[in-house]
Recover the amino acids of this structure.
C-alpha cells in the first residue's frame, strides 16, 4: 500500500472551499494537492489512481482534543494504536492533552512526546502544554504547541488550577491560546459529599451538574475579557453555557462540543452504565438540542472527541471508583455524517466543524481545505452504505465504544495523510507516518 510519486483521485464528489460540492479529480504530489479539476490526465508511469465514483472527498478530520495515554498509561492506549484508530476514522491530525505520566508541563516532556509521535503516529500530531501553579515560563516558551490546557475541575494534582488568583496569573501573561476544561472544582467537591454512598453512575451527571460547568465557563470568560486573551472552551456540555455564549461571545473566544454531548444523554446510563461516564458528564435531551442549535448557529465553532479510553476492567468497577472517559476517534466522523444524512445538519457543515474551522482556529497552515497548495490530508467516505459499530472491529486499544450497535454511514473508505494511503478499503498501512503540526 505504499504510495507512488503521485496519487490521482478520480470521479469523487469533492467538498470545495466554497462549501459546495463538485464531481471531479484531485491530483496529489509530494504530500500536497496540486490540482483539482473536472478531469485530470495522469502521468501513467508514476501515478496511482483511485476510482472514487460514488464516494465523497472531504478534508481530513482534525480532532482538537484527545487523550492518547502515552507516556505512562499505555495499557489503555498508545500513540500507535490511537493513530491507527484515527486513520480508520478519517482523522488525519490530532491535538493531544497533557495529563499523561509524566505530565506535559515542560519543554522536555513536550519534546519527548514529539519524538515518540515521529516514530509511531500514522497521522499528524500536536501536543498541548499543561498549566500548573509553578510552570508559567514553560507556558510562555514551549514550542510547538497549539496552546495551554487548564483544568479548572475534574482533575487532581498539579494540573488542577481551581483558584481565581492562579488562573489570573496565567491569563495575564503572554498571548498563547488558553483551552479550559471548565468545571467548578469546589461545587463538584461539595456535591460529591452530598451524594456520597450512591453507586448508580447516573448520579455522576448530578454531582458534576450544569451549574458546575456554567460557573467555570463564566470565570474563564471574565478573565479572557479582562486580558483580551484568546480563550477556547473545551467540550461544552450544557444549554446554560451555550446560552451564555449566544448572549456574549467575543471574537477571540471559541468553543467546541463532542459527538457524545450531541448524541448521548443521561438516558445512556440505563443502557451502558459506567461506559456512559465522562467529564463533563452527559446531560439532558434538552441540553442536546440546545447544543445542536448553538453549533448550527456558529455559537459553538467545531467538534472534538475528547477521546479518553479506559479498559473494560476499569469501567466494570463500582461507581464512583470508575474512571471517566470514552473513546471516540474511530466513530466521530461517521456519527456526524449519519446525523447529517438524518437532517440534523449538512455534510458541508460537518466538514467545516471537523476540519476547516479547527485549522482556522488553531492557525494550522495548509490544512482543512481541498485546494491546490494545501496538504493532502483527505478522507473518502461512503455515504451510501450503513454499517454498525462492532466492538471486534475497533482498533482503539481499549476495545469498546459507547456507540456499539449504532448503525452509521459515512465510514472512511480511504484516509490520506500527506499524500499517503494511511487507511484504504479496510486496511491500515502501518508504514505511513504523519508530521508535527505547526501553529501560527
Amino acid at each position: 500500500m505504499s504510495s507512488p510519486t503521485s496519487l490521482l483521485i478520480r470521479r469523487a464528489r469533492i467538498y470545495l472551499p466554497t462549501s459546495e460540492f463538485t464531481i471531479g479529480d484531485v491530483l496529489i504530489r509530494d504530500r500536497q494537492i496540486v490540482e483539482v479539476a473536472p478531469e485530470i490526465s495522469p502521468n501513467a508511469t508514476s501515478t496511482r489512481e483511485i476510482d472514487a465514483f460514488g464516494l465523497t472527498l472531504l478534508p481530513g478530520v482534525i480532532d482538537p482534543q484527545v487523550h492518547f495515554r502515552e507516556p505512562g498509561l499505555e495499557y489503555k492506549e498508545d500513540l500507535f494504536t490511537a493513530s491507527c484508530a484515527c486513520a480508520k476514522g478519517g482523522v488525519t491530525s490530532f491535538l493531544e492533552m497533557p495529563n499523561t505520566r509524566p505530565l506535559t508541563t515542560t519543554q522536555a516532556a513536550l519534546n519527548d512526546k514529539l519524538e515518540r509521535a515521529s516514530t509511531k503516529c500514522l497521522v499528524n500530531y500536536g501536543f498541548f502544554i499543561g498549566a500548573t501553579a509553578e510552570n508559567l515560563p514553560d507556558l510562555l516558551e514551549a514550542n510547538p504547541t497549539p496552546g495551554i490546557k487548564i483544568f479548572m475541575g475534574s482533575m487532581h494534582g498539579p494540573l488542577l488550577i481551581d483558584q481565581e488568583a492562579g488562573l489570573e496569573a496565567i491569563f495575564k501573561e503572554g498571548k498563547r491560546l488558553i483551552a479550559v476544561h471548565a468545571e467548578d472544582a469546589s461545587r463538584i467537591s461539595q456535591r460529591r459529599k452530598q451524594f456520597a454512598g450512591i453507586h448508580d453512575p447516573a448520579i455522576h451527571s448530578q454531582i458534576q451538574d450544569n451549574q458546575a460547568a456554567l460557573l467555570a465557563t463564566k470565570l474563564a470568560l471574565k478573565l479572557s475579557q479582562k486580558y483580551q486573551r484568546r480563550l477556547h472552551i473545551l467540550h461544552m456540555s450544557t444549554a446554560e453555557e451555550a446560552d451564555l455564549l449566544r448572549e456574549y461571545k467575543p471574537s477571540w473566544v471559541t468553543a467546541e462540543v463532542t459527538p457524545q454531548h450531541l448524541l448521548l444523554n443521561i438516558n445512556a446510563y440505563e443502557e451502558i452504565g459506567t461506559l456512559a461516564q465522562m467529564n463533563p458528564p452527559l446531560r439532558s435531551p434538552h441540553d442536546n438540542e440546545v447544543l445542536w442549535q448553538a453549533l448550527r448557529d456558529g455559537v459553538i465553532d467545531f467538534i472534538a472527541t475528547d477521546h479518553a479510553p479506559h479498559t473494560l476492567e476499569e469501567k466494570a468497577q463500582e461507581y464512583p471508583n470508575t474512571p471517566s472517559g470514552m473513546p471516540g476517534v474511530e466513530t466521530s466522523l461517521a456519527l456526524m455524517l449519519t446525523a447529517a444524512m438524518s437532517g440534523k445538519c449538512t455534510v458541508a457543515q460537518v466538514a467545516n466543524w471537523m476540519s476547516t474551522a479547527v485549522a482556522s482556529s488553531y492557525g494550522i497552515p495548509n490544512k482543512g481545505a481541498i485546494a491546490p497548495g494545501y496538504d493532502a490530508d483527505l478522507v473518502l467516505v461512503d455515504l451510501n452504505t450503513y454499517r454498525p459499530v462492532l466492538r471486534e472491529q475497533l482498533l482503539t486499544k481499549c476495545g469498546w465504544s459507547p456507540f456499539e450497535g449504532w448503525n452509521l454511514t459515512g465510514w472512511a473508505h480511504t484516509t490520506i495523510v500527506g499524500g499517503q494511503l494511511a487507511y484504504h478499503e479496510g486496511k491500515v498501512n502501518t508504514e505511513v507516518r504523519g508530521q508535527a503540526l505547526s501553529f501560527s
Observations:
- The two ends are 33 Å apart (CA to CA).
- The longest helix spans residues 210-227.
